[in-house]
Amino acid sequence: MSRLRSVAAAILAFVLAVGWLGAVPAHAAGLMTGAGSTYAALAIQQWIGDAKRSGLNFSYNTNGSPAGVQFFLDSTIDFAATEAEIASVNEGSATTSKSYQYIPDVAGATAFMYNLHDTAGRQYTGLKLTRDVIAGIFTGEITSWNDPAITSQNGGIRFQEDAIKVVIRSERSGTTGLFYDFVQNTAPARFARFKQKQNIVSPDGIRIIQIPTPYPANWTGIEGSDKLAQTIASSNGAGMIGYDEFGYAIAFGAQSAWVQNASGNWVQPYAANISKALESAQLRPDLTQDLRNVYKSAAPQAYPVSAYSYIMTPCAPASDRNTCKSPYYDDARAQQMAKWLDYIACDGQVKMAQIGYSPLPPNLSQEIQNSITRMSPKAKGRTLNAGNCRNPQFSGSLGAGATGPPPPAAGKKNPSATPTNSASPGANPSASAGGAGSSGAGADAVGGGSGRWRDDKPVAYGGLSPAGISGLTALLLILLVGIPPLVGAFAQRIKSRVR
């Protein structure tokens, strides 16, 4: 029997090992594989769907920014998507032998999703939160929905739910890093006390990408942006609040709080507010972002918890990037990536406002083209303008779905029974996409494929855990789940015969 158990254990260990490897797409001929950010995943899902219609084959697993960065550094995947820089993933060290560059790909924002009811049991849809109250909630110092700091901003309402149930990301997450960077810079005293209470150890200036357990009372950790949003929006989510990229609020119909910015205005994370806030972002020479001025932007429209996401690719030695050490090992991959990035820079920005993001400003679309030139001696970016790039920002627009509803009237106890997130991920954009100029015929299609996708609806949300999973990976996951019970049943049968 001991030998039988050893065999069963060996089979299980093999299946676990294969299943783990299968969770990340392996390099395959003609397939570009990526992994990482859940924050940007809704945008990447749109871009991959469009690329497939145009003859480009990409897959993407949403296993979180830190995991994506690590798999990229290990050369397991072709590209990573992340909000967490290497230094955050490596706990302060940015040293690596891997060739890489950061490429801003989309602008987004952290929404504060909630599920609340007034004392009559009606859903509350107009929650207003100051930046300090948000910091107080997510450091465990404000624990009641009926705290005067909250009710005073919401017309004196009393909420049916009293205890604030905080939902955070349990795994290492770039979204967590962005949000707690906001908390650290907005309410430093609250953050310092929280950091000490939770025994968080991190070097100065390095974003915290995971909150260690045990959590404060009434806190829950959930893995994945989609699961977090789904949980809060569900019938079991009463009293909950969590942080997540705004697109997930749209996808799951969750309410998003109105946040008071530095000018005193109440704003939600629609494209117009994201774009205005990011005018205050400072980009370092490697294009990573310093967001301290975004959090305190005095622009009336600015949504203060806005940020860019990055794609990471290898790059050939370049005079302006000491991290560029070697190109893609396969020039065909570099050419595929160049075509996809060219699409992301322009046509890929057209539908971003409809799915919870904001198009890149023109200078960052141009930076995508500059990054293409760094990837390979044969890859050449182009100079963009309103005549050859359909990014709506080149024509002074943000595209369809860029603006949200006005803030609820002061003192109105339950502003509306209608969800404030009225933008629909399935809304059909106008052909002009906010007045963007049309590219020439040669630029209509990515890689020479059909350009018809540009007038289609945004890609429907279909779940992100994981996205782009291959048939082989699915088979391995089935084996991972199915073989252990079979081994156990077989062992039990042998054992009964021996008896």
UniProtKB/TrEMBL annotation:
- Keywords of the record: Membrane, Signal, Transmembrane, Transmembrane helix
**Keyword Membrane attributed:** yes
Membrane-crossing residue ranges in chain numbering: 467-491
Residue ranges with Low complexity bias:
422-433
Q: Where is the composition biased (Gly residues)?
A: 434-451
Q: In this protein, which residues make up the domain named PBP?
A: 24-347
| Coiled-coil features, chain-numbered ranges | none
Q: Which domain of life is it from?
A: Bacteria
**Pfam families named among the record's database cross-references:** PBP_like_2
Similarity comment text for this entry: Belongs to the PstS family.
What is this protein identified as? Substrate-binding domain-containing protein
